[in-house]
C-alpha cells in the first residue's frame, strides 16, 4: 500500500510512504485501515484518519486524541505504564527486533536518519527486560543496540 503524507514532522513538503501486508490481522496495516473506514465512514475529501465524534460529526484525528485514547486504554489495565509516543516507537522497534528484522531495515521502516533511537532503547531497560526474559537467546542479537559502546 502506497500513500502520500502531505506533511510530516520532519518534511513540511510531505513524503510518499508505503507499508506491506502482514499475516496477522492485528498488525496488518490494510486490515486496520479498512476497519477504520468501517468504524468512521467519511466522505472521500475528509482527512484520512477522520473519526466520528458523537456530537460534532466527522473530525480529523490529532496526535493529542490518539495519545489520550492510548493513555485511557493503558490506565484500564492495572500496572500498565502510561505510554508516551516514544514508548510506542520503542515497542514497535522491539517487536521487529525480536522477529530478527535487521536494525537497518527497521530504521528504514521508521524513516530515521540517525542512530539516536538506540539511546531510547538503552534508556528503557524496563521495556526490554520482559521480552529478554521470555526469549533470552535474543539478548545476543540486541546487545549491539541496547548496550553502550565500550571505549
Question: Your description of this structure?
Answer:
It is a single chain. The protein is mainly alpha-helical. It has 2 domains: 61 residues, no CATH class; 90 residues, no CATH class. The protein is 47% helix and 11% strand. The strands form 2 sheets. Strands 1-2 form a two-stranded antiparallel ribbon. Strands 3-4 form a two-stranded antiparallel sheet. Strand 3 and strand 4 form a beta hairpin. It starts with a strand and ends in a 5-residue tail after the last helix. The mean pLDDT is 76.
Low-confidence stretches: none
Whole-number tally of structural domains: 2
User: Based on helices, strands and strand pairing, what is the structural class?
Assistant: mainly alpha
Please state the average pLDDT score: 76
Return the string of H and E elements: EEHEEHHHHHH
Q: What spatial order of strands do you see in the largest sheet?
A: 1-2
How many helix segments? 7
Strand elements, count: 4
Q: How much strand content do the residues show?
A: 5-15%
CA distance, first residue to last residue: 43 Å
Shape by Cα distribution? globular
Instruction: Describe the sheet with the most strands.
Output: 2 strands, antiparallel
Could you estimate the helical fraction of the residues in percent? 40-55%
Indicate the radius of gyration in whole angstroms.
Answer: 18 Å
Brief account:
By secondary structure, this protein is mainly α. Helices cover 47% and strands 11% of the residues.
